[in-house]
Amino acid sequence: MGVAMDLRRKQLLVGAIPAAIFVPLALLLTMVPFLEPPGSVDLGERGLSGIMDHRQQIENMSNPISRAIYSFGDSSCHQNSSRSFFFHGNQTPVCSRDMGIYWGFAAGAVVALLRRYYVPLSLVLLSFVPMGADGLIQAFTSYTSTNLIRPLTGFPPSLLLSMTLVYSLQEMVYIPQGDLREVTSTGLSGGVEHQNDLGR
User: Fold this and answer.
1) What's the distance, Cα to Cα, between the start and end of the chain in Å?
2) Quick check: is 115 in a domain?
3) Quick one: 98 exposed, middle or buried, by C-beta within 10 A (0-12, 13-18, 19+)?
4) pLDDT in tens, 62-117
5) Residues of the chain with pLDDT under 50
6) Which of 37, 62, 150, 196 has the most CB atoms around its CB within 10 Å?
């Protein structure tokens, strides 16, 4: 039992790494609009992904945490205001779809930490279909997505990817060959306790 408990402790510590990253990040992306004066952050409609094109506006922000998080968003997201949420009268650091993606990563990390799930690759790939369809149809037709649909399509794939990441990290925890019989007898077969298969 001692080996099994030690293994589970190591799995929890390793599995907590994604949650320690994604949960604070999702919270910061949601909360930093409240750190700036109401109605002071609107980044317009000319942003491009992967380009720091809002540097001047961000440097004028009053709070250093805001500057850091909005700069992070500027480097990874177009930050177009019509495709973003507004809290406290201020635009969020990333667009609504990216907000759904980051919250999906956060939720998946927490869910997988509480109870481990094996997510089949086919299910992960399938979860990208709604997001891909929403983006492609918008790109090639007159259809315009909404700030409700965008995060709803971004959330599922990142949720499942995050759960897969936690599962994979915990699977990397080393089990000494001599202790494998004890681990298996306690129900941690293959180093997995209370494993569930979402594909069943």
Assistant:
1) 29
2) yes
3) buried
4) 999 999 999 999 999 999 999 999 999 999 999 999 999 999 999 999 999 998 88
5) 177-178, 180, 182-194
6) 150
Q: Is 103 exposed, middle or buried (0-12, 13-18, 19+ CB in 10 A)?
A: buried
Rounded CA separation 81/190 (Å): 48
Alpha-carbon span 95 to 44, nearest angstrom: 12
- Structural domains counted in the chain: 1
Distances (CA, A) of 34 to 80, 81, 148, 173, 182: 19, 16, 21, 40, 52
Task: Please give the single-letter amino acid code of residue 104.
Answer: G
Look at residue 34 in the predicted model and tell me its pLDDT: 98
Residue 143 domain flag: yes
pLDDT for res 50: 84
Residue 111 within a domain = yes
**C-alpha to C-alpha distance for 163 and 117, rounded to whole angstroms:** 7
Domain enclosing residue 179, as ranges: 2-183
